[in-house]
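hey all, quick one before standup. I had two proteins in the batch that finished overnight and I want to keep them in one place so we stop losing track of which output belongs to which input. First protein below, input sequence then structure tokens straight from the run.
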Amino acid sequence: MHPSFPDVLNPQSLHRWLRKTALAAVPILGLTGCDDCTETSNYTREGYLPADAGWVVGSVHSSAECSRYCPSSQVCWHYDWDRCTVAGDGRLMCTGTEVFCGPRPCGRLPAGLRRASIALATPVATELAAAAHLEGAAVFAFRSLERELLAHRAPLQLVRRAHSAQQDEKRHYVSMSHLAHRHGARVPTVDVDPAPVRTLLELAQENAIEGCVRETYGAAVAAFQGEWAAEPVVRRVMRSIAVDEAEHASLGCAVDAWARTRLSRAQRVLVDDQRAHALNELGQQIKRPVTSEVMSILGIPGTTQAAALSRALAPLWEQWA
């Protein structure tokens, strides 16, 4: 059951619903099974070897022995380990066959954001650096929103929520930067060109894209990661972020509702057109492949899971139309 419009305006209700949606996404897919299976032979992946295991460097162990320390099977992944070897630096290298059945390899953005170059050694490091960069960019986006809401004499409550959102995004930037650094990534500097105060129509059009569509989907993805990321610290960070992102999505809805009272019918049609365009663009973006490593470690939804989240959110977006 999707939330009612008053529930969308309540951040706590919206977050509870988004979390239920995230929890449901993978189990439902599990019932239908995974498809597009690919098998990788002689696949090697690092396992966890406790200090008290007693295995010496260079030793090779059987599949039965390795099963205790090599990565276990997950949703849409299955591993058949043939052997594992203790490397010279003490790491455990597991070798065998990976069977993968599933898809192969968002937040509020400010106007004037300059493109950053992010190309790192691993997909996980690249994803985390990009996420941290976007969290930093969102600080500028909400700063601009606060300034423009003041200029257009919006209700003080909306202005305060936009200001509070900046503090949220600063925390998110720090948290995601720490995760990126854990994986050896350097977060690029956030550069945003200054922009003048826009008209109310321009503000409403951007909010339809960034607040109503991108923030809402981003909140759903954060909730998904908070439940399904394999790395515990990522789950913990994303669960905290998901609560704030639900508030930001709710703020986008509230700004939209207020702005509509100040716009003409023709202008409201233009806002609706922007939202429809953003939804169509999102539908194309979620079709982009995601690596199995990113899906597993960070809990980023693959194309199938992303489509399931988008379908679940569709009734919510329809209420805003």
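OK second protein, same deal, sequence then tokens:
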Amino acid sequence: MTLPQRVDRERCGEWFRRNRRRTQQWFDLVKPEAYYEQPISLRNPLVFYEGHAAAFNVNTLVKRGLARTGADESLETLFERGIDPHESTAGAGATPAERWPDRSTVRAFAEETDALVRDAIYSDEATRPDNEFLRDGLAIYTILEHEMTHHETLLYMYQWLPYDMKRCPEGYEPIPGGLPPRGATAMVPAGRASIGATPGAEPFGWDNEFPGRTASVPAFEIDVYDVTNRDYLEFVEAGGYERPEFWTPENWQWREREGLQHPIFWVRRDGDWYWHGLFHEVPLPPAWPVYVSHAEASAYACWKGRRLPTEAEFHRAAFGTPEGRERRYPWGDEPGGVQRGNFDVRLWDPVPVGSHPDGVSAWGIHDLVGNGWEWTSTVFAGLPGFKPLTTYPQYSADFFDGEHFVMKGASPVTPAGLVRPSFRNWFRARYPYSFATFRCVLR
């Protein structure tokens, strides 16, 4: 891929400082006794994520990029790579608890690596044109976006910590809203959809975003709003979790093994439904988008006689226009503020669907960016001509296994810097912890 020839080091240096401040801010949300907790068995304990960003930064830019000495070889190895185990082997491959260092050691390590990385960002050698690792600031952009992706990881892990282990931010107040609209759909005419990005079109992109391609998309009819908690409750009350005909064999085996009867974000108590929020429970908000795994979303769509959209259909619905050109965002070509969508941690939770009418697409479709990542039916894989990223070759390729599915859009806590049409998120089909919702396409 090609990146801009001139790298604004001042901007990158401030971006790095902002990333590190936000990482610290997120760790300040949890109490000291939570530091070694593992709220999701498919992930490492929280201590890993404080050390991981620091280790990745110094390993990528300082050691591999500039061939300089790091801070602590053993910690740079320990914190180098996370885990993504299959749901049937939760906890397998996780580092034993006794091997994690105490927090003072991790903090000292982070401070030392931060100093090395700051010096590297401002180094004349950090953008050397004769080094493909450093050319046009590739290693710098890699560490900056990598840390941003883990900000969201931390928050969806915090969702599952006991409430007494977290500090509720001042002024936190969910917005439950009223009843959502029902049954609205939009016709999207046949047309072209651009997937991925053209080299040089973005300051940085991950390898799975390149090279961009154009797809021909037949006409389709799609939900105007994401499936809400009220919509999904009908599926639950209709016995959807007891009827294998709506599930693939693998998904049904998972549902039975886990004993799932409803989305894990829901809590049933004394005959009433509640939503398991980040900082406390609230009565189940009917107008919020439902958060579920790909397996659950697919089962609901089958029950409705519908299906999940493809990645190309999502792009057509989000960025296409009647006149044939494509927008950068659903609402237009300028970045969105608070009136366009629920992302960038402006709020901690979802809001009622349709709360941002200024963010609708050209076809009148709501919430295509923000309020929850959206599952597609597209299996995560490289675009034709895919080449692994020099600075992080395993970033995407390790997940081209047929078990991960593309998600598009953004969640309430997705950093604004990741809101671009080419960005592709992904998770396993039976991973229920991410802030992911869906909408359906009529068959």
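Flagging for whoever picks this up: The two ends are 37 Å apart (CA to CA). Residues 185-226+299-442 form a domain with the paralog of FGE (formylglycine-generating enzyme) fold (CATH 3.90.1580.10).
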